[in-house]
Specification:
It is built from 13 helices and 17 strands. It is α/β, with parallel strands linked by helices and 409 residues long. The protein binds pyridoxal-5'-phosphate (PLP). Pyridoxal-5'-phosphate binds next to helix 5.
Length: 409
Amino acid sequence: MKNCTYLSSAEVIAQAERYIINTYARLPLVLVKGEGTRVWDADGKEYLDFVAGIAVNSLGHCHPRVVAAIREQAGVLMHCSNLYYSTPQVELAKWLVERTPFDRVFFCNSGAEAIEAALKLARKYSKKRWGAGRFEVVTAENSFHGRTYGAVTATGQPRYHQGFEPMLPGFKYIPFNDRAALQEAVGEKTAAVLLEPVQGEGGIYPASPEFLRAARAITRERGAVLIFDEIQCGLGRTGRLLAQEHYGVEADVACLAKALGGGFPIGAMLASAEVAASFSPGDHASTFGGNPLAAAAALAAAVALEEEGLVENAVRIGRYLKERLVNLGAATGLAGEVRGMGLMLGLAVKVPAKAVAAACQERGLIVNAVKEDTLRFVPPLTITRAEVDKAVAVLREALLATASQSKEG
Ligand SMILES: Cc1ncc(COP(=O)(O)O)c(C=O)c1O
């Protein structure tokens, strides 16, 4: 295998413990190479990757079009401050605007930054339209919006707040999919309602159509901005370019990141012309946001997503994976509900999810235990039926092995 690191897995892990700040509960796996749906560890072992960088590598690893675009742009112009215009950024913005209901784009480098931009824009818009005193943001319990102060305050899970209080003022949380609670929470002080159409880190919970439609109606009636966090569920993952399309609901603002750069870091906040007009020069900025290199990678990824029919593949293979997971649960009695859409699926398991994920990894399949009792499947959108068959066979073995170990234990 090419490009293998000169350090063994054990050496990399020991050095990480010595030199890197301990913020991740990492699995003992050192990845050194990826190609399509597969990755390799530092000891040369191959894995089928059903995590895909947590919904980042939607085109598979090192997609040739993205690699070529990065190589080419790197030799031409990598960075030139946003004091100036650059071609890839404009082309990417045009691509996004032409395929979504939004009119304008702000580029940044990550999901959390896209959320920050959306929160600031919503407050600015509300202040301009309604005057001071309209600053509240309503979000859902069990949501996840990122780790910067605004994004983590918006995240409706107290465990992400612990130790960092006081959180930002002006945030309210309502139970996800609870229309009455939303109606009650949105009032004269509400600047925005921020929701994930499909909750990701929360365990793969799609919004109900009634809830998202109510969110649209209530925000419109009360003059608040509706923001969708499509950072995980957007860009084809659920079988539509944006997950909001499943619901026939158009937000005023949408946040994207993860899959946008085909593996390269970039985020974007998309907004309607009316809301976007509240930002003036100096209101918001990002040194690296939409730099030529990231934008060229994202443009290549966007074109590949479309020309290679990957959104359609997410529908077709997503349906097949869902069916196979339902059957697996029924056949083993060790798994139950399958939640989600397209290739963003969660499987409720009756044995510890972390142990199942570890048993899968031993057998050459990477899956993620998103909760104690839920496995998350967000493979590349390029995945084939044969790869789904292989993954489900490994998962079956892993479930049975975990169940027999739990019995012995
Ligand atoms: C729905 C959602 N929003 C926001 C974020 C934060 O994105 P980032 O880690 O790029 O800041 C994530 C990351 O997992 C996410 O899933």
